[in-house]
Specification:
The complex is a heterodimer of chains A (about 160) and B (about 425). Chain A is an alpha+beta fold and about 160 residues long. Chain A has helices spanning about 5-15, 25-35, 40-50, 55-65, 85-90, 90-105, 145-155, and strands at about 75-80, 110, 115-120, 135, 140. In chain B, strands 6-5-11-8-9 form a 5-stranded mixed β-sheet, sandwiched between helices. In chain B, strands 3-2-1-4 form a 4-stranded parallel β-sheet, with helices on both faces. A two-stranded antiparallel ribbon of chain B has the order 7-10. In chain B, a hairpin with an 8-residue loop joins strand 8 and strand 9. The chains are: A alpha+beta (about 160), B alpha/beta (about 425). Chains A and B meet through helix 2, helix 4 and helix 5 of A and strand 3, strand 5, strand 11 and helix 14 of B.
Chain lengths: ~160, ~425
Amino acid sequence: MLSPESLAAIDAEVAKYPAEQKQSAVMSALRIAQTEKGWLRPELIEYVAEYLGMPAIAAYEVATFYNMYDTQPVGRHKITLCTNLPCALMGAGEIADHLKQKLGIDFGETTEDGRFTLKEGECMGACGDAPLCLHNNHAMHTHLTPEKVDELLDKLK
Amino acid sequence: MSLLKPTPKVCSWTREFDNPGSLATYVANGGYQALRRVVTEKVPGDAIIAELKTSALRGRGGAGFPTGLKWSFMPRAFAGDKYIVCNSDEGEPGTFKDRDILRYNPHQLIEGMAIAGYVLGARVGYNYIHGEIWDCYEIFEAALKEAREAGYLGDNLFGTDFCFQLHAHHGYGAYICGEETALLESIEGKKGQPRFKPPFPASFGLYGKPTTINNTETLASVPWIVQHGGQAFLELGKPNNGGAKLFSVSGHVNRPGNYEVPLGTPFAELLAMAGGVRNGRKLKAVIPGGSSAPVLPGSIMMDCTMDFDSIAKAGSMLGSGAVIVMDETVCMVRALERLSYFYFEESCGQCTPCREGTGWMYRIIHRIEHGQGRAEDLDLLNSVAGGIGGHTICALGDAAAMPVQSFLKHFGDEFAYHVEHKRCMV
């Protein structure tokens, strides 16, 4: 179900923990699985659980507790915008309006062509560079302005 | 600046160099000398803990607990597995200092954790890194690889019998995992729900083994203290508030960013370093220690110095050193609405007062902000906040209650105006 590269990456995470504590690698394993497949469908979560020798329900709990996992389909490009207080003071509200208007969707929605999903995020620990967003959980874009948002969206096909 | 000379920059001195986070920069400026010395000279752990106590180093993650005392709780003679864990799950709104340590000075953190491993008898450590800062996770992994290859991590370090291995663990978006026992659950591959204390992590921590958990900046301060002595660190700051500290200044200032200054520095000086209030506007309010710390009016802050005791005396907390600055254009109802939404969203749901109370508070503040406030709402808010604080397993409940209580205490007239006139007075 996962590529040899993804399995090798999961194995490298497993090696960090005591042999009898493979479950410790579940967070990374789910991240790696999601990065390859786009989102965590139930069969994928079960596969990860089985790979790590843990109950499927325990892996579901992790996948649904931490908010960077997607247990529903998302667009090719997930944009998570922080709107917490320090970002709000620096204009995150205007950036949110601009994103919604430009993409024609609200937070929690995906464009019809499946290109973008917009999410509202909580503190990303980079408030000095506010306002900011995260692209597909991995790339942070800081000091956002409407122009920078347009540039970013144009690049993401 | 370097680690060789005692300087007022404890954690941020590498920023002056071209490759601030590299092993070469770190080693060329005295890095890993403290670790080498304590390991090869077999400096007794007690002596290092004594230095930490002298230094008055207090936890930099928010609670301000004395680090030397925390280390002394660890059953160092216990023969089985023990762990040292670093809390880099920096998600307290306003805080972004540990991110810079991971990016610009990862080796000082690695050295601090290795020294902790040596003192506390732990052979393995984990650094739990906040989910949203993937680049820092990769940087830290690369630094670990460098340190292993150079012989600063691994087996039989410096030809002695001391072995220490360190790994990075990546979080995935849960504020609650900044709470130390939730963080341990998370490393174990579970939902991040805090544990009852006692037992404390020193006796029952990661995988049920004795564990010491410290914040990133705390652990990164250790090599400096070992290098220059506890007294030198203490003298950087003021009694009971040793050292320099990174302050993350965000919000309405001209130059948001991290500023490392001695504890006891006047707030006015820190504000000036950050370029002062944006657009020459008037300072209205400051949250001095991250979103969980009570808000203070600007006039009170201007009389404070930035240290644990001064901020506590003024009625708030130094917390993680996250200074959120708000100018006169800020509507305090709207600001609190946003913070309350955060705690509602991030409550782990384990304790009823927090799970139900955070949503209740958010809904009340939301209706006040949107012109639907009722005359009894302010009393109700105080009552709900009082019902949460002190009635939950972990401090998230208190962290949700304190902003509400302090916003009402200092800016209650704005809330009353909203309720009465159905609009904002700002």
